[in-house]
Amino acid sequence: MTDSRDAKKNHLLAALPDAEWQRWLPQLEWVEMPLGEVLYEAGKTLEHVYFPTTSIVSLLYVMEDGASAEIAVVGNEGLVGISLFMGGESTPSRAVVQSAGQGFRLKAQTMKDEFNRAGPVMHLLLRYTQALITQMAQTAVCNRHHSLDQQLCRWLLLSLDRLQGSELVMTQELIANMLGVRREGVTEGALKLQEAGLIRYARGRISVLDRPGLERRTCECYAVVKKEYDRLLPVKLAT
C-alpha cells in the first residue's frame, strides 16, 4: 500500500484536494529512480507519469548526432510527462534521472481520465505546466546570453530547490550533457566555484557550501523561474 506521507513529499500530490487525493492514493506506485535511468525516450508513447519525491529528472533534447542539452529539471515540485494531458501521447524530449532517489508513478490512462474530469486537478496541472514552460523558455534565454559560470550556478540552484539536502551526486560528463557544453568547460566552471568557496566537488559529489553566494553569482534567470513556481504553485506541506 502506498505510504501517503512519502507520496506527499511531492508538492503536486500534496496540493491535491482531499477527494482527489483519496481517489489517487490506491493507484500511485512507489518506484526507485536510479541515476541515469531513462524514464522515456523521445517519440515513444508514455505509459506513466512520474512524481519525484527525493529524485530529480532532467528533460533533454537530443540531436541526431547524439549531442544533448537540458531544457528543464523536474523534482519534488512537479511531474514528468505533461504531454499526456496536453493532447499528445509522446514528447520530443528524453527524461533521464539526474539525481538518484525515489518517486511515484501513475498509469497514463488514469492521468488522462483525471485531467478530463475538468475539476481542480486540471487547474493544478495547467498551473504547473505554465511554470514548467517558463523554466524551458528561461533556460533557452540563459543558454544563449549568459556565461557557463552563470548557467552552472542557475542549474545548481534549481537542483537544490528540488532536493532536501545540500549535496548532489553528479558526474561532470552528465552535467556537460545537460548544459550542452564540453566536459572541460564544466571542470573549469566547477573549479572556479570551488575556489570561491561556494561548492566542494569531489568524486562526483557536489556539496553546496554557500547558497547565498551562488545566488549572487548567477544570472537573473534563476529568480525568474523561482518566482513563477512560487506564484503558481504555493507549497503545501505534507500531512
From TrEMBL:
Under SMART domains, the record lists: cNMP, HTH_CRP
Q: Which GO terms describe its molecular function?
A: DNA binding; DNA-binding transcription factor activity
Is this entry keyworded Glycoprotein? no
Looking up InterPro entries in the UniProt record yields: cNMP-bd_dom, cNMP-bd_dom_sf, Env_Response_Regulators, HTH_CRP, RmlC-like_jellyroll, WH-like_DNA-bd_sf, WH_DNA-bd_sf
- Keywords of this protein's UniProt record, alphabetized? DNA-binding, Transcription, Transcription regulation
Q: Give one Pfam hit by family name.
A: HTH_Crp_2
Entry-linked Gene3D superfamilies: Jelly Rolls, Winged helix-like DNA-binding domain superfamily/Winged helix DNA-binding domain
Specify whether Membrane is a keyword of the entry.
Answer: no
Q: Which residues form the HTH crp-type domain?
A: 146-212
Listed GO cellular component terms? cytosol
Q: Tell me the protein's name.
A: Crp/Fnr family transcriptional regulator
Natural source organism? Rhodoferax sediminis
